[in-house]
Amino acid sequence: MVELEQVLDVLAESLDGAAQIHQMSEEAPLLGAIPELDSMTIAGIITSIEERFGIVFDDDELDAEVFETVGTLRNQIVAKMEN
After folding, report:
1. Which of 14, 32, 56, 75 is the most buried (most CB within 10 A)?
2. What pLDDT sits at residue 83?
């Protein structure tokens, strides 16, 4: 099982304001809500997720909806680990 704290750790590594990141809930919005969350940052987050959880995402498995909230990102990680 992927814990919320693990997802927040990955986000905090890639984004400024780690203390604020760790206070986020699963409902916290990502895309559009965090100015520094651009395509380069997202690529780094994906790489960190893949390394940390031992998974590899196919291009068609990731879209803007995955990065809508912390919870949608966590759910995608869980789904990938279960396959």
Report:
1. 14
2. 85
